[in-house]
Amino acid sequence: MNTLDTLHSALGSLRANKLRSALTALGIIIGVAAVITMLAVGEGARERVSEQLKSLGSNLMLVLPGTITSSGVRLGSGSRNTLTQNDAAAIQEEVAGVLAAAPALRGSGQLVAGNLNWASQIYGITPEYMIARDWRILRGRGLDENDLRTAAKVALVGQTVADMLYGGSDPTGQTLRVKHVPFTIVGLLASKGQSFGGQDLDDVVLIPISTARGRILGQAQGRLQTVGQISVKMRDGADMQQAEEQVSALLRQRHRIQPGQDSDFFIRNLSEVVEAEQAASRTLSGLLAAVASVSLLVGGIGIMNIMLVSVTERTREIGIRLAVGARQRDILIQFLAEAVILSLFGALAGIALGVGGAHLLGHLADWNIIVQPLSIGLSVFFAAGIGIFFGWYPARKAARMSPMDALRYE
Question: What does each C-alpha distance from 257 to 64, 260, 261, 264, 384 come to in angstroms?
């Protein structure tokens, strides 16, 4: 019996019991659909982490004010600005591999444009901040050294501020009052989205740090050059752990902190946060795929069960075929072909159901869904493998029947 005859015979047997064949394939259909949907959800989660990574900036560390002790009382983290612009300059010059060390002051306040107002985050920055945070200018220009030197009243605004105060139109050249001080908008920032904590990174106004200190945020305490944070961006390929140790050693030396004393700053390595998020995302994807794969296993068991029933029902047919010259290999291949066809039919139907279900889930839950061709190919491959694995025993049992015993079967 050639391959074409085998397939024709297998299809004929499956068509003779259409309902049973469809119910048998149902386990594979559900399994494949579940695997594709879960992998799409997991891939969407990884893509979301990747987008948040881009919004934060890669190879980035944040140096923040730490705790200080006053009269034996340890005050809370950030209770006093212990970092200065000179610290940022020292990090830029003395730590190997630093691409940019950007000091910044941070505050909040009311913004007014025409008859509209909006409360937003206000950052006083230097030009290096845009490099450190991988932030692009969508329209207009960025801040330059002349803006810092003259304490110019110019500002960059995020997408959220532009939407709230200017209806999403180009705000460059418009006047924006920041805490009652008029500023000219010179640039619109590209969208950053949300941080890992859910903060809207586009709800921000960036102004020169000299202007922020002198006119907007003031200097509530500490020396004139103190800052609220320093963003340190390392070059590609830099050892982030080693860089963190070097920055810590340099600042402890500059702040005259003795061995055994607590640092008056702390360093947050965002690369470690990103790696943790990505590891959690990979674990979630693997868990979802593993849970969904159980459905494939159940579907395979269902195929074995039905194929065993089919072998029993067709015992006399098997005996006749063996008696008229069919070889054991022919019987084996036919029953294996039936199992594989059932699995592949289930895989194709499962693919359609899985892709449709994934997009429906993404629409209803407002979740980023990414269906990869690789997951579809793997589903078909494993479905065929399940058909062979679980169909082997029934097919082997049919092929090894004795023709005389099979013909006498009632």
Answer: 16, 8, 6, 8, 67
Cα 180 to chain center, whole Å? 41
pTM: 0.61
Question: Residue 392: pLDDT above 60?
Answer: yes
Going from N- to C-terminal start, the domains of the chain cover 3-52+276-407, 67-263
> Tokens 């810590």 — which residue?
248
Tens of pLDDT along 334-374?
778 878 888 888 888 888 888 888 888 777 767 677 787 87
Q: How far apart (Å, rounded) are the C-alpha atoms in residues 370 and 178?
A: 41
The tokens for 159 are 């997408």
Output phi, psi for 121, to 5 deg: -80, 140
Would you give the distance in Å from CA 296 to the centre of its chain? 26
Greatest Cα pair distance in the chain: 105
Q: Are 132 and 101 in contact (CB under 8 A)?
A: yes
pLDDT surpasses 70 at 70: no
From the list 35, 33, 47, the residue with the least C-alpha distance to 369 is 47
Contacts of 307 (CB under 8 A, 6+ apart): 335, 338, 339, 390, 391, 394, 395
Residue identified by tokens 């074409």 is 4
Assign 197 a pLDDT band (cuts: 50, 70, 90).
low
Residues 107-128 have a mean pLDDT of 93
